[in-house]
Write a structure and sequence with these properties.
The complex is a heterodimer of chains A (about 190) and B (about 120). Chain A is an alpha+beta fold and about 190 residues long. Helices cover about 45% and strands about 20% of the residues of chain A. Chain A is built from 5 helices and 7 strands; from the N terminus they run αααααβββββββ. Chain A is rod-shaped, with a radius of gyration of 34 Å. The model of chain A has no long low-confidence stretch (mean pLDDT about 90). Chain B is of the alpha+beta class and about 120 residues long. Chain B has 4 helices and 2 strands. In chain B, a hairpin with a 6-residue loop joins strand 1 and strand 2. In chain B, helix 1 crosses helix 4. The longest helix of chain B is centred in the last third of the chain and has 25 residues. The N terminus of chain B is likely disordered. Classes of the chains: A alpha+beta (about 190), B alpha+beta (about 120). Chains A and B meet through helix 2 and helix 4 of A and helix 2, helix 3 and strand 2 of B.
Chain lengths: ~190, ~120
């Protein structure tokens, strides 16, 4: 015959259906109480112990249900967790896109435009909040011919009046990039 | 959902309502663990509050979730690896105890006045 304390607690827990952490805690606490009861009734046999529990401690079903009411069931706990997690996920996605659009974005270099500074296959992070640019900075910009693409260039000179940049690509001489077309400065790369 | 009344009879319902205040009172004297509290309740009330000891725990958990009591410490039960949780009253629990005691005093006084000395 299994330990009457375990048998009784199994019955209580089957009615209570608590969250795992609550179940461990409640089980431990009730087990301590039941051990005390057994110690006070050392003359009883196993079957009699279960009957004594039902009488002194309560019907497992009643105890289970009322503990569930006071603690909250596992299902409620899961529901809450899911709700919290999905809110968290939405916040993360929003945050992710906000950061990508306004602060920093990762790119993979595809061409040789700024080789050997950055070679094809290199990944880099572009910082979009740069206050200003200086000669030597590697930048990413939207070319006037196709604004959905992103080109790399190395800053040669900055027009102090307009903020426009003179850059070079592929070692070719200077190309003017309007201040508004600059996406940002390459701050990190995997080269 | 299953929302069955624990025992259904008026007496146990009434005792449970009162037990809340008594438990707060006992725990305000000193921190106690479950069995100790059940034993104190039964012994000091000469058995009147020897309610099913299992009903004590739902009461403790709901008092705890309302912030009226808290776990003061955990100790290992002597001679075993079992953990014992000692509960104590929080400041909010003390305020709740005061209002509970006032209610009980009013009820007792009201009943004595209506029923006369014979039942009081």
């Amino acid at each position: 015959m299994p330990d009457p304390i375990d048998a009784y607690l199994d019955a209580v827990m089957s009615f209570a259906r608590l969250a795992p952490a609550d179940e461990r805690r409640v089980r431990g606490e009730l087990a301590d109480h039941l051990h005390e009861l057994v110690a006070r009734h050392s003359e009883l046999q196993n079957e009699e112990i279960l009957a004594m529990f039902a009488k002194e401690f309560g019907d497992p079903r009643d105890v289970g249900y009322s503990i569930a009411k006071s603690k909250g069931r596992f299902r409620t706990y899961v529901k809450k967790k899911v709700r919290r997690l999905s809110i968290g996920a939405v916040v993360l996605v929003v945050l992710w896109f906000t950061v990508r659009a306004n602060v920093a974005e990762a790119f993979k270099v595809e061409g040789n435009s700024v080789a050997p500074l950055l070679n094809p296959g290199t990944r880099c992070v572009v910082y979009k909040l740069a206050a200003g640019y200086a000669p030597g900075d590697v930048i990413v910009y939207k070319p006037a011919e196709d604004r959905s693409r992103r080109f790399l260039g190395i800053v040669k000179d900055v027009d102090a009046a307009t903020g426009d940049l003179h850059i070079t690509r592929n070692g070719r001489p200077e190309l003017s990039v309007s201040h508004a077309d600059v996406v940002g400065r390459v701050v990190l790369n995997t080269r | 959902m299953q929302d069955k009344d624990v025992s259904g009879d008026d007496r146990s319902q009434f005792l449970k309502g009162v037990a809340r205040t008594l438990v707060l009172r006992l725990l305000s004297e000193r921190a106690m663990y479950g069995y100790e509290l059940a034993a104190a309740l039964a012994q000091r009330s000469e058995g009147i509050f020897a309610l099913g000891q299992g009903t004590l725990y739902p009461l403790l958990y709901s008092l705890e979730s309302k912030g009226l009591i808290e776990v003061a410490r955990e100790e290992l039960a002597p001679g075993s690896g079992r953990k014992r949780r000692y509960y104590r009253v929080t400041p909010a629990g003390r305020a709740e105890l005061d209002s509970g005691l006032t209610t009980l005093r009013d009820i007792a006084r009201g009943m004595r006045l209506v029923l006369g000395a014979k039942y009081a």
